[in-house]
Structure formats: structure tokens, C-alpha cells
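From the thread on structure requests for the teaching lab: each student submitted one protein with a one-line request. Submission from student K.M.:

"Model 2,3-bisphosphoglycerate-dependent phosphoglycerate mutase from Enterococcus florum, C-alpha cells only."
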Amino acid sequence: MPKLVFSRHGLSEWNKLNQFTGWADVDLAPEGVEEAKEGGRKIKEAGIEFDVAYTSVLTRAIKTCNYILEESDQLWVPTVKSWRLNERHYGKLQGLNKKETAEKYGDEQVHIWRRSYDVLPPLMEATDEGSAAQERRYAMLDPRDIPGGENLKVTLERALPFWQDEIAPALKDDKTVLVAAHGNSLRALAKHIEGISDEDIMDLEIPTGQPLVYELNDDLTVAKKYYL
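Reply posted by the TA:
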């Protein structure tokens, strides 16, 4: 039975400051490091042995992946990094304080930007400071693939090819897979895996640093789901 483990990165420095993060490359806070390590210890206690790990190209997810593998004595496991597993891009909201943004635009508008399935945030231009279009890590991408902002629908459309080309084939080959990524990229994949509706996905929250285990049938439908 294929096994898939999701781990949202530990608390980041901007999570701690209540700021929109998105594609901004923010490090883990000390508490986030400990969350990631604890996740690794739980995986070791559960006896889960990975064949391959996947993560984004953002520091907080990469470090979470490494801490999990190190604490579970599996740092040698092959790891693949992809921009397709990046957090949802929050556009011009990136770097803004969530509370201050709510005071400016209203709680309802910010809730829609944060949680709705298909509403885009205010978009960032390629020439704006902090745009991913100016970063070397994305230089190999077609400029049309670099977002100025995303909702969950667009995040899923971006992540799905990686699921279909990399993760799903590994699972169908009966491999045990770790995906250490972000709240919204994992929510997007969970929506696809579990068949969650556009409305119900708004209520799904994946906590930081807590491994989520899927035991899957051969057709990759969910047989069992639980947190460690």
C-alpha cells in the first residue's frame, strides 16, 4: 500500500510576525526548527521509511525537509526540489501584516483573498521589488510561468503537473513519499487527492510541522488519513 506523508514547514519568521509570505524566501523561526525536528522524531517513532522526498525551492520548506530526514535517520534519501511545490504567491500582499491589511481593506476582503478558491490577490508586476521574475532561482522558467499572484485554483494548476509527472508515478511504484512544502501547495494537492469541493477546501487547514499521513489504494485514492 503506497504511503504519502505531507509536512507543512515549521513556523517561519514571517508566520511569527503575521505577515503574508508567499514566494518570499523567509527562513524558519527557532520554533519552526523545533517543529520540523519533532515531526522527524514522530516519523521515526512511527517507523516510516521514505524512498524519495520532494520539496519546494524555498528555504523554509527545504530546511523542514532536511530536519525531518535528519531526525528520522534518513538524510541520505534522494530529494527533489521544484518551484511547483512553492507556497501560493500572494502578489502585492507579500510582506504585509495580515492584521494591518484587514484594518485597511476589511476582514471580509482579506478572508476572501486568503481562503477563497478562485479569487486572486492584488497582482505584482514583474518589475516590482521582490518579484520572482528578478530571482536567479527562477531564471530557467518561461516568464509566463512566473506568477504575479495566485489563488488556490491557480496553485493547484501549477502543482498538478509535478504530482502527475513525479509524485504519482513514485507512489504507483509503491514508494513511500515525503512532501515537505507549504500550507497552500499542500492544501491544493490534498484537494486533488481527497476530491474536496471548492467550497469545503476553504475550511481545510494543515498545521505547521505536523506530519499528515495518507495510506493510499493502488489507484491513489485515500484508504486512510491521519496525523502523527
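TA comment: The chain has a mean pLDDT of 94. The first strand starts at residue 3 and ends at 8.
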